[in-house]
Amino acid sequence: MEVYKFGGASIESVERARNVADIISENTSEKKLIVISAKGKTTNHLEHLVKAYYNKETEKAKSLFEDLKKDHLLYAQELIKSTEDITPQLEEFFIEIEWILNTPPHNEFDYYYDQIVCIGELLSTYIISFYLNSIHIENTWVDIRDILKTDSNYRDANIYWKQTEECVQKQIVPLFQKKNFIITQGFIGSTNENNSVTLGREGSDYTSAILAHILNAKRVTIWKDVPSLLNGDPKIFPHTVPIKEITFYEVIEMAYYGAQVIHPKTIKPLQNKNIPLYVKCFLDKKLQGTKIFNTDKKIKYPPILVLKTNQILLQVYTKDYSFITEKNLSKIYSIFHHCKIKINLMQNAAISFVACIDTHSSHLDELLNLLEKDYTVKRNENLFLFTVRHYKQNVLREELKNRTVLLTQKTRNTIQMVVQ
Ligand code: ASP
Ligand code: MG
């Protein structure tokens, strides 16, 4: 069997949903577990709804809820000729939200976020599954909340692997004996108290990997609106090139440096079982796309470019011009750790320690206060952190035209620069 994952953009309109049906029905040699996200920008819409509800902006919350209902009912109507049979189940999903809206919030925000936002995936998958059955692509719809079991770390829930595996064996495996396709939701799961949870934005990729891992899938295919992975974000770098093959290791490195390619948690479950991951384009399924896999073969990569914006460079000096010793370093690190601020790049010299961090780190003021008790802190703002793997001098020269480099760090494969 294999796993397909379709993101929100692939089903945002009825035309696109029909295209997804073509893709699914085209290749029937393998049984398929199909993981789907909420349609279009539904997750963002639901985020606004939760915020409005939590801030007690009741009218706004209600009106956003009405928009959600209208949008999905219309979508269902256009895809499925007679919606009599589908409406009762859609209503049940709507009621899950309505119940919450009718009682004032008395629990933490993240809890409500998950109870409300999960409905996006339930709606989209139910409609697509119903539509596929109506055109004789026989499939079973599964509420993944019965299967994917997690702790109650809302908005970033951790999987209970053993329990999830048992549920998959008991509830999913037998379904494949009856039908070749199973349709389910990405991004969501549930606690043992049956509260809904989410796995973090863009978490559907991760769901596909979890299920592929447990089911020993032959492969996972993520259908996107881009022809393949590129060596950089085309919105930032004008001359990107496609990458046809790439190792899991390299993708993890890219994600670590800040490339928004694939949800970083996706890789491990696949890598551990040697399950290749394909990225293909739903707009043109004939395109080759990208294969991500384990291999000993030496792949020749183009320079891979990652730009992180909104960076600050902090220079931390000892007040008495004494050397930065291990003792100082351990104290400085523990302050960063205490404030939960991630250091993107660091370097130390005789009397200074330099760290590049995100401008929007949430405990930045606290960090500065704590550091300034014992050190002098200078900062440079509005910077970029530019990372290039497999760098070549000519590419660096080209990309760094008109920029001032404040700090450079180099290893054999990677160069990182803080630039202005
Ligand atoms: N719908 C969720 C999001 O937009 C999950 C996903 O698309 O993977 O973040
Ligand atoms: Mg999505």
Q: Order the strands across the largest sheet as they lie in space.
A: 3-4-2-1-7-11-12-10
How would a crystallographer describe the biggest sheet?
Answer: 8 strands, mixed
Unreliably modeled segments: none
> What number of domains?
2
Structural class: alpha/beta
Summed over residues and divided by their number, the pLDDT gives a mean of: 95
- Give the bound compounds: aspartic acid, magnesium ion
Radius of gyration: 24 Å
CATH top level assignment of the largest domain: Alpha Beta
Helix content: 25-40%
CATH H-level superfamily of the largest domain: Acetylglutamate kinase-like
Number of strands: 18
Do you know the CATH topology of the largest domain?
A: Carbamate kinase
Number of helical stretches of at least 4 residues: 14
Q: Tell me the distance between the termini.
A: 49 Å
Shape-level CATH architecture of the largest domain = 3-Layer(aba) Sandwich
Structural shape: globular
In quaternary terms, these chains amount to: single chain
Please indicate the percent range of residues in DSSP E strands (runs of 2 or more).
15-25%
